[in-house]
């Protein structure tokens, strides 16, 4: 009997794959995981997040850099599952962010879906196309590249 493929990661599995913790863990779960192909990260945006204290107190907007970081975290979870390194010391480093565009504000109460598609993977260097969406509407898109460093 073989194990069923992992198609979803809850917060506990996410924390076994990536080292991020509060206040910089920016995803709540990852669904529709397709090994070496893509996934959808989920971020429930709440007013209680620390960046809203200064960005902006009277009109809270999720900073664009945190949207891109959330995309990268979802991609890192996909890589951790694809490379079968759950529970090991995997660090992910940004190499590039290209063609990044912001299309709409992301505000408290939104559910941000981070659609990540592998453009190149399988080794230390991975490339992705990401689209962040709220209720099906494009909020941000970017092409990102990252280096995976398995430290153990």
UniProtKB/TrEMBL annotation:
Protein name per Swiss-Prot or TrEMBL: 3-hydroxyacyl-[acyl-carrier-protein] dehydratase FabZ
Annotated GO MF terms: (3R)-hydroxyacyl-[acyl-carrier-protein] dehydratase activity
Enzyme class: lyase
Record function comment: Involved in unsaturated fatty acids biosynthesis. Catalyzes the dehydration of short chain beta-hydroxyacyl-ACPs and long chain saturated and unsaturated beta-hydroxyacyl-ACPs.
EC number of the protein: 4.2.1.59
Origin superkingdom: Bacteria
Keyword Lipid biosynthesis assigned: yes
Alphabetical keyword list: Cytoplasm, Lipid A biosynthesis, Lipid biosynthesis, Lipid metabolism, Lyase
Organism: Albidovulum marisflavi
Similarity field: Belongs to the thioester dehydratase family. FabZ subfamily.
Residues annotated as catalytic: 55
Catalytic activity: a (3R)-hydroxyacyl-[ACP] = a (2E)-enoyl-[ACP] + H2O
InterPro entries from the UniProt entry: FabA_FabZ, FabZ, HotDog_dom_sf
One Pfam family cited in the UniProt record for this chain: FabA
Subcellular location(s) of the protein: Cytoplasm
Keyword DNA-binding: no
């Amino acid at each position: 009997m073989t194990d069923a493929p992992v198609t979803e990661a809850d917060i506990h599995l996410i924390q076994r794959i990536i080292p991020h913790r509060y206040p910089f863990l920016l995803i709540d779960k990852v669904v529709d995981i397709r090994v070496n192909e893509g996934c959808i990260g989920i971020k429930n945006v709440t007013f209680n997040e620390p960046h809203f204290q200064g960005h902006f107190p009277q009109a809270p907007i999720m900073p664009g850099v945190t949207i891109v970081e959330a995309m990268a975290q979802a991609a890192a979870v996909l890589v951790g599952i694809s490379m079968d390194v759950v529970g090991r010391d995997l660090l992910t480093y940004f190499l590039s962010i290209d063609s990044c565009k912001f299309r709409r504000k992301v505000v408290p109460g939104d559910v941000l879906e981070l659609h990540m598609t592998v453009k190149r993977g399988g080794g230390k260097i991975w490339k992705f196309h990401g689209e962040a969406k709220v209720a099906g509407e494009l909020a941000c898109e970017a092409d990102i590249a990252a280096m995976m460093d398995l430290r153990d």
